[in-house]
Design brief:
The structure is a homodimer. Chain A is α+β, with helices and mostly antiparallel strands. The longest helix of chain A has 21 residues. The N and C termini of chain A lie far apart (about 70 Å). Chains A and B meet through helix 6, helix 8, helix 11 and helix 22 of A and helix 6, helix 8, helix 11 and helix 22 of B. Chains A, B: One of its GO terms (biological process) is fatty acid biosynthetic process. Chains A, B: InterPro entries: Malonyl_CoA_deC, Malonyl_CoA_deC_C, Malonyl_CoA_deC_C_sf, MCD_N, MCD_N_sf. Chains A, B: Keywords: Lyase. Chains A, B: It comes from Helianthus annuus.
């Protein structure tokens, strides 16, 4: 290919291979999943007979362990993928109910156990050895009980885990399970999910994962996955991808030996002089800071590739290992921070504003300060008489194409208001004692603090819709990571910089009461 | 270095770094272990205060999970290694007894459980959804019980597993536990062992292991491990090592991501035209068969490097994957066989012979046929009058330096007798329904058959002491692996070739009654 041809190729727009939606909905993209998958040898497109798939599931579970299982396992996973959404759901219900544990066996063991006398502590100290044999009856029944409390479907999970391609298949099955639970709360499916999730957490322990630095030298089949799964800032073309893997940038992924060539989660890092305020300067920073001058590692994107691994916190370990690695490699780097989206801010704000419209000004909290209200009404001349500040804000924020971003005047008026509300949303709004925002919760539980809010940091359609263009830097301060994580974990305390607290208080604290 | 210098270096005798004894006795070589270990950062040589180590163990278990654990884990493992054998034993007893499970909590949950009504099957079919919510009480208590049945020491194991170097440390701890059990049967230590073993089996599932072909291009630090741990046929010098990794040879190991640069188990393979009859032709086969002419892959050595992983069957998966890999790479290879030692034969035979000496000819089984008895007495002129054949055999077999192997006459007389007894030992002698010989049991449970006995196949001191120099070929016949494994597993049936059965029957069946 000549130079011009190459230039065109590098610039041509990339279409991700599979749509990555925030909401887990694996059932719908299963056919695509199949095409992407390199490990799953699935070629059949038409749905198989339900009874036949059910039969193959039964064989996998009940077969004696020394027989040839591989064929049965392949047959089952191929059959499963061929099923419609309804039939998969039906099959998983059968699995959860008919391959559960044997409750009468559990009860028998319990009866034996309750009949045993617990030796008391004093005796143990004096006649250690003698007591020991007394305890062996306990040990025996406890071991048997542990086994009896394993549902029969554990065999299926275990066998799939050691079967080539099986772990990835299990992740797809879990995505289906999550999608069923999202639709309907079925106790047996929830029990199935919680069991599978615990298994996945064990199997995907960081001890089993390889940290791989992803570079332009990696196979195209792996890079393709990065393009497909980059969920935060979509990769637009090959130049964009190459830049993210090139000078002044790093990309690291966790790879499991049994899902080779496909990171389960990956993180993109920019090496910079300062903590960036806008995503534009990260994505289009050209030329990059010379690496020897960098003092900051900015984590600007973290994406997981398997919706079925929701709740298996791989990101926490990944961030810690990457910090450790970068620090070891480049001792000059001493700031570790993110430039993160605030995915829930607008949704929260709009629902607050809308509830005022519905329930009227008396019954709802006015989230605006008087001076903010005034500034909004002043700025928006089109407002009907009697419209409140909250109504004006709702109206403007929901206007098509984010028109407010085209008016410098509105932008100036909005800036302090949205920054204050955003700081409130991040620092004060909680659900079950944890930050309401999912990304905030993720970084806070890892031990980060909320460092700085950045106005107009992401002007993309997605950025404006999610958070009015605001982005936030979470700071990983090495000396404090453990303390902050501990405080957040035990009391729900959210660590934020004075800068962020200032947004919440200002401007009325210093306001002149006469004005 | 000049050519001559290199030649001397390559030929100089290698001394394995740590003695590898068959009997697991980790406690004694812990200090050596420490020097070999690359991952364990242990430098303290003097024993630490017992109370202090016990305290650090307590911190690791009881610390809140978000605090800094790494320091505590390092302190504990360093402290543990510094302890004497007695103190380690004491500490493990404390771990087993004081960090056990909470039995009254288990009982409380049981009481709740027994109080629940089991919904009967019919109802489930008719009102699936309704029953489902009825079951949720069961699911809840079952989940709680699973957790309550986990001993407190599980936390220690789990934390060590995800800590760098922790898995290797746990393998050392298990070796110590096995050594305690070998000395004394303590129920609580046995319970500790069985729990740790199950954990290790989960963590070391083949899905987490990487199959690595070990070559001369591998780091010296890895090759050093091969030399140190080759337990079957010690590697004598660098030329020997290089040959085992060179043309016509293969060496594969399983590596766990958290114990890098050190295979947990490795297998050595020779590519040959025929199934070898002696180990000499494998180890000193020069020049090797051109690889394109090879039709046989001969597994001549399999060694595991961690005594603490006894009972975690990694070898089975390793052999299967190696067969698969070799077959894929070299389609001309269609024989897969071992040339294996028979480690228990002499021990078994000598104890049979000795029991005759002790209890006299009337109360013990005469394991010799009349014609064998005669042949022995004829051949051994030094025998005292009245000495039986068994006594003569015992006498000769236990003579210093295996003198019998220097008499052609004795060798000729011994050959049919020892081959017959060896076939009987391998095929008929069992313990709990399994082959008495440990290596036989290993290959039989993997689905191999006993193919051929080879006379004077290993004339080394070790070979003569273990099995009178006899070696055996176990054959892995791809079509039958699963069937044979299944038969052995369920009925204890040992598959052997007609050749081997012939040894058991001959020669008396065709014997002339007059002679």
């Amino acid at each position: 290919m000549n130079k011009k041809g190459l230039a065109i190729l590098l610039r041509s727009k990339m279409r991700p291979l599979s749509p990555v939606s925030k909401k887990v909905n694996q059932l719908q993209h299963a056919p695509l999943e199949r095409n992407v998958s390199a490990t799953q040898n699935v070629s059949i497109k038409t749905e198989r007979d339900f009874g036949q798939v059910r039969e193959s599931m039964h064989s996998v579970i009940s077969m004696n362990k020394k027989e040839i299982l591989d064929t049965a396992l392949n047959e089952f996973s191929e059959g499963y993928f061929s099923l419609s959404k309804e039939n998969r759901c039906k099959l998983l219900l059968i699995l959860a109910r008919e391959y559960d544990l044997n409750r009468s066996k559990v009860r028998d063991l319990m009866k034996q156990y309750v009949g045993l006398e617990i030796p008391n502590g004093d005796e143990i100290d004096e006649h250690g050895r003698e007591m020991d044999s007394h305890l062996s009856a306990f040990y025996r029944i406890e071991r048997n009980l542990r086994h009896a409390l394993k549902p029969m479907y554990e065999v299926l999970f275990e066998r799939l885990n050691t079967h080539p391609g099986g772990l990835k298949f299990l992740a797809s099955v879990r995505a289906d399970i999550l999608s069923i639970i999202a639709d309907e709360n079925v106790a047996s499916i929830r029990a199935l999910d919680s069991y599978l999730k615990e298994k996945l957490i064990t199997w995907l322990s960081p001890a089993n994962l390889e940290l791989h630095q992803i570079t332009w030298d990696d196979p195209a089949s792996l890079l393709e996955k990065i393009v497909a799964y980059e969920a935060v800032h979509p990769i637009s073309n090959l130049i964009d991808l190459k830049r993210r893997l090139g000078l002044g940038r790093r990309c690291f992924g966790y790879i499991h030996p049994s899902i080779p060539g496909e990171p389960l989660i990956f993180i993109e890092v920019a090496l910079m002089k300062n903590i960036a305020c806008t995503i534009q300067e990260v994505l289009w920073h050209d030329p990059p800071t010379p690496e020897c001058e960098a003092t900051t590692a900015l984590f600007y994107s973290i994406s997981s590739t398997q919706p079925g691994l929701a709740g298996v916190n791989l990101g926490k370990f990944l961030i810690k290992r990457v910090i450790y690695l970068v620090k070891k490699d480049m001792p000059n780097i001493h700031n570790f921070a993110t430039l993160s989206p605030i995915p829930g801010f607008m949704q929260w704000l709009l629902s607050k504003l809308a509830s005022s419209e519905r329930s009227g000004p008396i019954f709802c909290e006015n989230i605006l300060k008087p001076e903010e209200e005034r500034a909004l009404l002043d700025a928006y001349k089109d407002s009907t008489t009697g419209e409140s500040g909250m109504e004006v804000l709702l109206h403007l924020l929901t206007s098509t194409n984010h028109e407010w971003t085209r008016s410098d005047r509105l932008i100036t008026v909005f800036e302090p208001i949205l920054l204050r509300l955003c700081a409130r949303y991040l620092v004060l709004e909680k659900k079950r004692g944890k930050a309401l925002d999912s990304v905030a919760n993720f970084h806070l539980q890892n031990g980060a603090m909320i460092g700085r809010l950045n106005w107009m940091a992401d002007r993309s359609e997605k950025g404006l819709s999610q958070s009015g263009g605001i982005m936030v830097n979470y700071i990983y301060s090495l000396e404090h990571i453990e303390d902050y994580a501990q405080a957040y974990f035990s009391t729900g305390h959210i660590q934020a910089s004075p800068d962020v607290h200032h947004h919440i208080q200002s401007p009325e604290r210093n306001e002149d009461p006469i004005n």
